[in-house]
Specification:
globular; alpha/beta; four-stranded antiparallel beta sheet
Length: about 450
């Protein structure tokens, strides 16, 4: 297994050929298959003597891959899809082959330096100061959790251990589910603030909520691009309240943070520069492969105070100069998951990223116009970023459910309905520059 043999060389050629074909050729959307079908078609794959790489690769390519949705397909517009660049995907092969652990400078200096270059670029987009720093974690859920753990630790330090009966953070009642999940993991409560007519957290509503109930509140979570509707919270107003009350402001831009690149929507993010922490997922709209979330802190030493682990075997490593990624979140071992983004940025340049994001925004506006032209469809709100919510007049919740299954079975698109103010509606999310208005028209045509 650990020697490089002639068979290994054949395997290497086959893997590279598969990867080359995967990124060079149009891919089908594929479909979901039930477990019993996969078990029947794949057979037993883990055995005492192995099935050999040829058979394992055949099972993957003929049975398992076709049962896995291609989220980078231009007609994949459910949830928040992905659209990694060719350079990022290819460099991910190098990351896997390099056996790099990017936990500390002592053994991961080169990889960490490159990741820090990408993090600095994002920090500059957000308007964070020169001393800001961060780390790549697995996704927005991990990013939100680690930021909130840091925020609570900072609040606890300010109170010299005089803890309230219950710690709490404030957020809109439309906040991303991962923030609510983080509250359960941390055993803290959420002050739920009513949203405005676009689903946003506003400074005015936050101030009213905290006037009524502020005991134990250590942070506020705001959204820079809500997953469900693509709207950006009132970051200026929310930041004002956080300054007034000395509260940590965490901004979740996992999906929408890429909009910072686009001059056409840059104004929506005013106030972000005042946040204490911020996340954005490169595997969403920054064209990197799964999985990567950039977690940034205005003052990273606060994260070190919250997350650094202490052990005798770590003393030498922690004596090195600089910030170690292991100290900025709850982890030690970590993959250098920010390297594909770094390589792609270095390859294509940031102007190409800006243009790609703007092209997606232009498509979204064109798609909204297309919806308005169809008498059976009704746009729920004007898009701010790249999410569209709309209703099909006369449809019941069951109609939306059968619609997405029918459209996937026909390999037209992968779509998912959602809910808005208790009503089941249609939702499209665009992040792929290869998605065209013809894809949109094909999807809308299935609703006639």
């Amino acid at each position: 297994m650990h020697e490089y043999t002639e068979e290994t060389e054949e395997l290497a050629r086959a893997i590279v050929a598969y990867a080359r074909f995967r990124i060079a050729s149009p891919q089908p959307l594929d479909r979901v298959a039930p477990p019993d079908e996969l078990a029947r078609r794949a057979g037993r794959t883990i055995t005492a003597s192995g099935i050999g790489w040829e058979e394992a690769l055949r099972v993957w390519s003929e049975v398992l891959a076709p049962a896995t949705i291609s989220t980078d397909h231009p007609a994949s517009v459910a949830f928040v899809p992905s659209a990694p660049t060719k350079a990022s995907v290819l460099f991910d092969l190098i990351v896997g082959a390099s056996s790099t652990i990017a936990a500390g400078w002592i053994d991961g200096a080169g990889a960490i330096w490159a990741e820090d270059q990408a993090l600095r670029w994002i920090a500059d987009l957000a308007g964070f100061p020169a001393e800001a720093g961060g780390v790549f974690v697995s996704g927005g859920s991990a990013g939100n959790l680690n930021a909130l753990v840091t925020a609570r630790h900072a609040a606890d330090a300010l109170r010299n251990g005089d803890r309230p009966a219950r710690w709490r953070f404030a957020a809109a009642d439309t906040v991303h589910s991962s923030a609510v999940a983080a509250s359960r993991v941390m055993d803290v409560d959420v002050v739920s603030v009513p949203h405005d007519d676009r689903g946003r957290l506003t400074g005015e509503a936050l101030r009213r909520a905290l006037d009524d109930d502020h005991e134990g509140v250590f942070a506020v979570v705001a959204s820079a691009g809500a997953t469900n509707a693509g709207t950006v919270d009132d970051l200026v107003g929310v930041a004002d309240v956080c300054v007034e009350r000395d509260l940590w402001l965490h901004v979740d831009g996992a999906y929408g943070g890429a909009g910072l690149l686009a001059p056409s929507v840059r104004h929506l993010f005013e106030g972000l520069e005042r946040a204490d922490s911020f996340i954005v997922d490169p595997h969403k709209w920054l064209f990197a492969p799964y999985d990567a979330c950039a977690l940034l802190y205005r003052e990273p030493l606060r994260a070190v105070a919250a997350h650094r682990q202490h052990a005798s075997y770590l003393e030498t490593a922690q004596a090195q100069a600089g910030l170690d990624p292991a100290d900025l979140a709850y982890h030690l071992t970590r993959r250098a998951r920010g390297l594909p983004l770094w390589f792609s940025l270095a390859t294509y340049g940031t102007d190409a990223y800006r243009d790609a994001v703007e092209s997606v925004l232009a498509l979204t506006r064109a798609a909204a116009d297309e919806i308005r032209r169809r008498p059976t469809l009704e746009l729920i709100m004007e898009p701010e970023l790249s999410v569209l919510l709309f209703r099909r007049l006369g449809w019941s919740p069951g109609d939306y459910e059968s619609w997405w299954r029918r459209v996937l079975d026909a390999q037209v698109a992968f779509v998912q309905p959602t809910s808005w103010n208790g009503e089941r509606v249609a939702r499209l999310c665009f992040v792929n520059p290869r998605t065209t208005i013809d894809h949109v028209r094909a999807i809308l045509g299935t609703m006639d």
